């Protein structure tokens, strides 16, 4: 093949690749319709989260509490639910976006911050910081959790890249699962030796949004904002990576840099969320698949949709946890596990292990 023929063939491949990104052929009108629907659902769930709890609250108390009054027990209950609702929205959006990016970077349908061990890495780092170094500030919790998430992500990707074929989806899933189990065992070992803090750490380990305050969230907001910004800016790069490394390089992308940048955004989102909520699983697994069914595979749409859908899912899980265990409540980590575990099994059966 002459140099001119090779150039023409390359140009043809690039043209075909550019056509693949919007190939799901989902119209803008349909996407806009689903966006309106999801925003309406989110608004309803926010209202439900504020109104529903272990205590029944009159509508008048809800309006007064929203205006800043806390003169009655009902108004005080609503004032506690408001930051809790906001935290559920932020945590659900963060975990869903992180899961979408992980699936895009690794091209692994089973990728999720919990399954790949990122959440558990952040969790172990926090537990070590509390047990060995007596950290107690919110800022320290966040930095330690982000460091633990980063170390765990690098470790899992390194282990999954060993051997023939590099980092295949199946190897990454197995490496992540094994790492998550090992780190979870270490967490238990560290906690058992400290009876004075074991109760609080065990409760945090379940994963939940109870006890949220605006003061606690102030510390985590800058990290989440940077994480969201990096993630959204990585959308075009993720579209290119979906075509394969060689094709992405042919389109002018620096593959290693694109992966590293997107992964950094994921680490920020997972680490910051785990620091304030504890490890919450399966949100990042379930939401991306649901959103692809609705609006296709274009990450420029998929990431914002995942954020909204993740917020809806975690809000719904929190509301369900309050209702089914009255007068007590179930943490969202337990509810999402009940939803996510069957979904994980369904994906494995649908994809078939040999195809991963």
Automatic annotation (TrEMBL):
<dbReference type="InterPro" id="IPR037294">
    <property type="entry name" value="ABC_BtuC-like"/>
</dbReference>
<keyword id="KW-0812">Transmembrane</keyword>
<feature type="transmembrane region" description="Helical">
    <location>
        <begin position="330"/>
        <end position="348"/>
    </location>
</feature>
<dbReference type="InterPro" id="IPR000522">
    <property type="entry name" value="ABC_transptr_permease_BtuC"/>
</dbReference>
<keyword id="KW-0813">Transport</keyword>
<feature type="transmembrane region" description="Helical">
    <location>
        <begin position="172"/>
        <end position="192"/>
    </location>
</feature>
<dbReference type="Pfam" id="PF01032">
    <property type="entry name" value="FecCD"/>
</dbReference>
<dbReference type="GO" id="GO:0022857">
    <property type="term" value="F:transmembrane transporter activity"/>
</dbReference>
<feature type="transmembrane region" description="Helical">
    <location>
        <begin position="256"/>
        <end position="289"/>
    </location>
</feature>
<keyword id="KW-0472">Membrane</keyword>
<feature type="transmembrane region" description="Helical">
    <location>
        <begin position="301"/>
        <end position="324"/>
    </location>
</feature>
<feature type="transmembrane region" description="Helical">
    <location>
        <begin position="140"/>
        <end position="160"/>
    </location>
</feature>
<protein>
    <submittedName>
        <fullName>ABC transporter permease</fullName>
    </submittedName>
</protein>
<keyword id="KW-1133">Transmembrane helix</keyword>
<keyword id="KW-1003">Cell membrane</keyword>
<comment type="similarity">
    <text>Belongs to the binding-protein-dependent transport system permease family. FecCD subfamily.</text>
</comment>
<feature type="transmembrane region" description="Helical">
    <location>
        <begin position="114"/>
        <end position="133"/>
    </location>
</feature>
<dbReference type="GO" id="GO:0033214">
    <property type="term" value="P:siderophore-iron import into cell"/>
</dbReference>
<dbReference type="GO" id="GO:0005886">
    <property type="term" value="C:plasma membrane"/>
</dbReference>
<feature type="transmembrane region" description="Helical">
    <location>
        <begin position="32"/>
        <end position="52"/>
    </location>
</feature>
């Amino acid at each position: 093949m002459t140099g001119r023929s090779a150039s023409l063939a390359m140009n043809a491949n690039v043209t075909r690749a550019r056509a693949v990104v919007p190939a799901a052929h989902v119209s803008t009108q349909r996407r806009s319709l689903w966006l309106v629907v999801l925003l309406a659902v989110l608004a309803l769930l926010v209202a439900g989260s504020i109104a529903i709890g272990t205590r029944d609250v009159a509508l008048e108390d809800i309006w007064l509490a929203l205006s800043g009054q806390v003169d009655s027990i009902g108004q005080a209950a609503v004032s506690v639910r408001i930051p809790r609702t906001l935290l559920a929205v932020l945590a659900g959006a963060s975990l869903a976006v992180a899961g979408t990016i992980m699936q895009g970077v690794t091209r692994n349908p089973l990728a999720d911050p919990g399954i790949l061990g990122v959440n558990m890495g952040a969790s172990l780092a926090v537990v070590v910081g509390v047990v060995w170094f007596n950290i107690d500030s919110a800022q320290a919790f966040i930095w330690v959790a982000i460091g633990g998430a980063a170390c765990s992500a690098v470790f899992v990707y390194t282990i999954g890249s060993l051997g023939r074929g590099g980092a295949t989806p199946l190897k990454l899933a197995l490496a992540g699962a094994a790492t998550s189990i090992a780190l979870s065992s270490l967490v238990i070992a560290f906690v058992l030796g400290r009876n004075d803090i074991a109760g609080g750490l065990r409760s945090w380990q379940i994963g939940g949004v109870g006890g949220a305050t605006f003061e606690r969230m102030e510390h985590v907001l800058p990290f989440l904002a940077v994480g969201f910004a990096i993630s959204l800016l990585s959308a075009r790069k993720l579209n290119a990576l979906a075509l394969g490394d060689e094709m992405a390089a042919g389109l002018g992308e620096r593959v290693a840099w694109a992966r590293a940048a997107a992964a950094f955004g994921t680490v920020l989102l997972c680490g910051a969320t785990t620091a304030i909520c504890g490890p919450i699983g399966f949100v990042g697994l379930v939401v991306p698949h649901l959103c692809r069914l609705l609006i296709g595979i274009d990450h420029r749409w998929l990431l914002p949709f995942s954020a909204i859908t993740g917020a809806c899912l975690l809000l719904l899980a929190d509301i369900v946890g309050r209702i089914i265990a009255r007068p007590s409540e179930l943490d969202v980590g337990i509810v999402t596990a009940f939803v996510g575990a069957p979904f994980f099994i369904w994906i494995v059966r649908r994809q078939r292990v040999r195809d991963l």
